[in-house]
Amino acid sequence: MADTKTAPKKLFVKTYGCQMNVYDSERMAEALGGQGYVETQTPDDADMILLNTCHIREKAAEKIYSELGRYKGLKAANPDLKIGVAGCVAQAEGEEIVSRQPMVDLVVGPQSYHRLPEMEAKIREGKRALDTDFPEEDKFAHLKSRPKAKRGPTAFLTVQEGCDKFCAFCVVPYTRGAEVSRPADRVLAEARDLVERGVAEITLLGQNVNAYHGAADGGEWSLARLIRELAKVDGLERIRYTTSHPNDMDDDLIAAHGEVDKLMPYLHLPVQSGSDRILKRMNRSHTAESYLKLIERIRAARPDILLSGDFIVGFPEETDADFDDTLELVRQVRYGQCYSFKYSTRPGTPAAERSQVDADVASDRLQRLQALLNQQQTEIQQAMVGKEVQVLIERPGRLDGQLVGKSQHLHAVHLDGPISLKGQIVRARVTESSTNSLAATLLED
Ligand code: SAH
Ligand code: SF4
Ligand code: F3S
């Protein structure tokens, strides 16, 4: 008979939403590692399933309930299977999740997952555990130090959480709470540790990462200062950060783009709309013109920077003229890559109460905006053909002998080469551009 006492329990984690959830999922799996769990890639043989959820749009939230429905059979076959819901749906809907899906054993919000080990012990006793507090204590200080395993060449590192901006459409200030920055020394220590374990590129994460103001040396550090200090870490080759708010792009951060070689020439800077009337209604505290001026300054500091953004179409009261302003702003900026969404009504947010745009009108606008954004992306990628890029090799490709990595501009690049190049930055010449990636040939040194 198998020794069930020592056999590790299996944990299946499924992650939805933004990169911060990807980081949190890693930390939650590590926290449960201390309870004897190892990760598995399928829910079928799991002892615990943890969904790390996103509440940003209605579809994202509803997906969770259909996913939970799929686990009914597994739970019936294995009554010991534990099911947990973490992340922003957990925070926003709390007990409602349990009343809609009584088979859920555990609900944990994004600020309280350091308490997972105690919660796991509780559900093993057959009780239910629910924690959606915004605790006083810093969860990062309470999480155990990260395991020393070797890692892939890229990693996320959360430095700031929460948001005080309260855009009229957005749930994040409610699900993630107020803006908090991690102390700079802890961030630097975690970064050094990641590098020792094989990481060459770190993406600093925050809901408003450029609002970072982490405590250090009895004062506060800005994101620019943190980046300059990180750039001194030997073995760390690339630094990125996301997501930024236009109002927090200070002079020093703009200057850092021109001065810090390790800071990659890519910036995700959502603007949401090109209409000042709508921006005001969205509570964005910037105008289309101030955004365009900002882009000009960033491009002056780093002319080859590739810009990316987020857009919402069909925000309440958006007219054809407002939407035309958005198209015009996009034409002026020329984005390398963008995300665009139809406005989704989120309960509890100010915009939910306002008069909604007709769904077909919103769909039509989304199509038109996406056509323009795709055209810009294609043109910018096409212009890369024949150019030399530096590719951080991340993994083998689908075809034999093929490698996949990322260029400085975050383009996915496919090239042929030996897998021994994984983790290295190689020079390559772009030969072809396809929908979401580039093909290149390796250049010998
Ligand atoms: N903190 C980031 C983004 C958070 S959410 C920032 O401020 O840029 C990611 C994107 O989802 C947003 O930029 C926005 O474009 C989109 N989004 C947020 N709420 C939405 C809603 N209610 N409907 C549609 N899209 C939304
Ligand atoms: Fe949401 Fe606005 Fe905060 Fe971004 S800045 S997380 S869109 S409230
Ligand atoms: Fe979604 Fe929460 Fe991130 S709502 S986008 S998972 S902060």
Describe the structure in your own words.
The chain is α/β, with parallel strands linked by helices and 445 residues long. The protein folds into three domains: 9-131, Rossmann fold, CATH 3.40.50; 139-382, tm_1862 like domain (pyruvate-formate lyase- activating enzyme); 388-442, OB fold (Dihydrolipoamide Acetyltransferase, E2P). It has helices at 19-33, 58-70, 72-77, 87-93, 95-100, 116-124, 139-142, 172-175, 184-196, 223-230, 251-259, 276-281, 288-301, 320-333, 359-382, and strands at residues 9-15, 37-39, 48-53, 82-86, 106-108, 129-131, 154-158, 160-161, 180-181, 201-205, 213-216, 219-222, 238-242, 266-268, 306-313, 337-342, 388-396, 402-406, 412-416, 425-434, 437-442. The strands form six sheets. A six-stranded parallel sheet has the order 2-1-3-4-5-6, with helices on both faces. It has a five-stranded mixed barrel with strand order 17-18-19-21-20. β18 and β19 (412-416) form a beta hairpin. α10 (223-230) packs parallel to α11 (251-259). The protein is globular and about 60 Å long. The chain starts with 8 loop residues before the first strand and ends with a strand. The chain binds S-adenosyl-L-homocysteine (SAH), iron/sulfur cluster and FE3-S4 cluster. S-adenosyl-L-homocysteine (SAH) binds next to β15. Pfam families: Radical_SAM, TRAM, UPF0004.
> What is the radius of gyration?
23 Å
How many β-strand stretches? 21
Task: Figure out the total of helices.
Answer: 15
State which percent range the strand residues make up.
15-25%
- Number of domains as seen in the coordinates: 3
